Write the structure tokens for this entry.
Amino acid sequence: MTIVLTNLQIIDLFLRFTTVGLLISLLIWLSNKKHTRENVSYLALNCCFIGYILLSAPIENSHYGGIRNVLLFLTDITPYVIFWVTLVQLNDRFTLISVSKWLMYPALLWFLLLAYNFLVLAGDEPLHQINHGVAIAVLLISCYLAVREFFDDLNNQRRNIRLLIIILCSMYMIGLVTFELMSSAMRNTWQFSLINAMLIFFITLLITVRTLVIDDRSNLSDARTSKRLLCEENPKLAELNHLMQQGIFLNSELTIGKLAEELTIPPHQLRQLINQELGFNNFSHYLNSYRIPWVCEQLKDPTKNKIPVLTLALEAGYGSIAPFNRAFKTLKGQTPTQYRDQFQK
């Protein structure tokens, strides 16, 4: 069967296959810098992107043959793979084996149902639409996980990953909604296909350049900054410790940005200082390491045994009792009331 392409369609295909090449190059580069656990999720995500790029090419469906079902399957499971990448990147201890069987078995059953629907039935319409709804929910959860501790995260590289996850989820949801609202006649035009190919190419190119070039320069700069910041007589570290000992942590509106202003250094350098020198991955955990001991001293004081725990929590800089109770239980293994009672006997 002969496939006749116009010059614009040839340009479209060139952009798509160049994008595939960029994705493969990016994966090879990442495989030399990331752990195996992360590589598997990146490989799956790249396969999904490649599936969409090839599926949306300006070629009639009849020319794809049986491979169209595979490409359709890869495209529609992309949200679940993004969710997998989110869990792997934001939780160092996450593995698929660690997932509860009560979650794993239903997820596996749903995955097998999707595989049958797309690979055998070529995307049966009712289940296809249901999957779109589930996909939106999964992407919203991924966005929530990425945003939840974005400002508290002290690892600059992981903050960039959080931002990338948010962008990927937003792009997929916008694309899905646009695709559903757009008529099939418009989706099948060469103009739409070419614009789609150009957007995919330039976005992939930007991500590749950001990862391969700018990130390397950033790492070099961070290494130099780290060497300067982590020396034994680092004045900024001493100044930070002095501020904390003076009780700046009691300020309920204290943020990494405000603390950096007090130290007259950029926020990313302060994150690196706390993360690499003091070993904290989260700014709230760093504050808790000062706030909880301060509260403990108040709870030990017999002259303050009438002061409510809520009052002490607010004085320590917490906005409400719930985060204080969680932090206290995590660090001390008991509730504030239980801790106070042992000094009242």
About this structure: The CA atoms of residues 120 and 221 lie 51 Å apart. The chain has a mean pLDDT of 84.
